[in-house]
Protein 1
Amino acid sequence: MQYFDNNNNLKSELRKINYVYENYKFIFYSDLGVFSKDKIDEGSKLLAENYFKYGKKNNKVLDVGCGIGFLGITIAKIMDAKVDMIDINNRAIHLSKMNIKENNIVANVFNSNIYENIKDKYDCIITNPPIRAGKKVYLTIINEAFNYLNDDGELWFVMRTNHGVKTVIKNLQMKYNLDVVDKSLGFYIVKVKNKV
């Protein structure tokens, strides 16, 4: 069982995770069968906290592969963003809906296999792509993002150094403006924009 699969027979062992950023406090429910089930993973944390510092407020944001909803929910609250969240995993969708309620957020969450059910355009697409789902999946998330971004929209993503991020960056730089916003704990935080 991988976190990007659906297994309706998987038992449930609900647990609570706390997250604090400055004066903001969040509670997230997590469970078996979702990514990083026991804690907010370092990559997602770094991505979110860089976005809080350098991202734009009041954006329309799409969180791709939302898992329990950490990125979308914290960005909705801290950045006053209008957020849509998608995942292919039904349990992740269910947990995200619980966490939206728990944290008193307004956000949309729905099932989508990558961009299959996306009809809108966004100011920002943010993702901690599911590396274990394979190269085809995570490269599709990254490379097709610009079909769903406004002209001045931004793609933000996190990848580990040892997951081939340098090659991904090199390929993106041929077509787009790219900034490495942060490099720490073995992760790259990357922001990509259309060339003006």
Protein 2
Amino acid sequence: MTESSEAKRYIIKGLTENGNKFRPSDWAERMCGNLCSFRNRRMIYSPLLRPAVIDGVKCVIVDSELSTKHPNLFNQIIDFARKNHLQLLDEAKALP
């Protein structure tokens, strides 16, 4: 694996391929809860799987390292995005 592929991240946008907003509104937090931890009664999201808001749209940032450390979870997340027709982007192409 090359250095550039290790640093690769994907963005799952909370918009369908048709541009409709995905529901429920807390889908990103639910998805990222699969890998979170708790410290002092606070939820701490993993850097491998974390929610974000980009241009006012809820998203999930998925680090490609997740596919190595937790391959089943990575596959479930990508399958979820595809089955729900969510926009799945390479971060390098999605952000300026």
Protein 3
Amino acid sequence: MEVKNRNGGTLVGGVLLILFGLLILSSQFFSGFDFWGTFWPFIIIGVGAMFFVGMAAGGKSTAGLAVPGGIITGIGLMLFIQNLTNHFESWAYGWTVIIISVGLGIYIMGWWGGNAEQRHSGAGVMRVGLILFIIFGAFFEMIFNSSVLANYIFPVGLILLGLYLIFKRSGLLTTKKSDDAPTDANTL
């Protein structure tokens, strides 16, 4: 077992060195393009991805690496989008991406480890993060008045969230239990 863990660490280290070398080499070929200024978040995404590589190399017992991997990768993706759009004020609500990333990590951990309860919990955390993203995003984008997000995407998100709350949470879309389903003895 120790050999497998040592090989996993060597694999992660080797992949990191190769990625870093490719980044440096590619910046030499594209001298007119500000490669580092645009793609620096990929370093963060790569670090997060290495947690997933370590998880895959370590087997089911290392499923917990999916949580920090999801968080770091999610932050890197958020930074990449902000860097491309130059919309860094979106951190006013972008912190909710961390909640979504935690949920995704828990979901992947449950999937990798074969635990349906963790998958269900991860999906719930992602759902909460998405709801917070829509609510805070709509509020702050309307304050910052960014074009597409404030005018179209977040209002549509608010409408969809409202419909979800009305139909799903009110019980209008729930499936009915069959008559032959067992009942709890305490409710009789």
